[in-house]
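Hello everyone,

My group is preparing for a crystallization screen and wants a predicted model to guide construct design. The compound we'll soak is zinc ion. Before spending weeks at the bench, it would help to have a computed complex in hand. I've included the protein sequence and the ligand's SMILES below. Output in structure-token form would be ideal because that's what our pipeline reads.
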Amino acid sequence: MCRQVLYILFITLIGISLPTVASSSFAPLSSADASSDDDNEDDDDNEDFEEEDSIQICCAWGLALEDGTLTYHIDDEDSSEREQQAVKNAVQEWDTKIEYLELEEGSSKRSSDITIEFDDNNEEEEIAGQTITISDSYGFLAKAQITVFKGVQEYQFDTAIIGQVAKHEMGHALGLGHANFDGNLMAEMVNDGTATVSECEIYAVTAANQWKLGANNDEHAVPDYPQHDSITC
Ligand SMILES: [Zn+2]
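Reply:
Good plan to model first. Here are the tokens for the complex, ready for your pipeline.
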């Protein structure tokens, strides 16, 4: 499972046996990221992670990606046109840059694989975004629920930051963990990050979902786990 996560808990939903819910949070300021409170990052196979610039790989999508398409839904409550457009642009950048992945607007929130909601100022914590992923009983991603906060405490995010947060959270939704270096979209802190989907994240998402997005893009491919815990940029 994702080892960068803030917490992992088990819940029971009707029709799904013990899906795993993992959450990643994106902190905007220089204080500790919520996910870095998780100091259980001492797995043996993770020892080499700090040595080179890399991005952690969490998970692969399951059957929802069988046709090469994931649907998304952007909630239009609690947000302006411009804020919605910033998020839409963020999704479209991923859509354009990942060759074998189609991100399509879903007809409803319920039926969409990835949902994106806005939330007002996060007063309590310095968290700019959050992605909760729900896995099927095999551990493949089945749903991702993104929350983009419109500010923290006194500080309101402009649409550039909202777009950056949405792109970062989409990275989680597509199977990525965090980068171990600054100047990358998947850096843990907004102000250490960038707002562009680079070659490295493209490669990482492709590696996470190798069974479908890999070079062979086999029509009859079946879900398979990522082969690596991280990729080197
Ligand atoms: Zn994050």
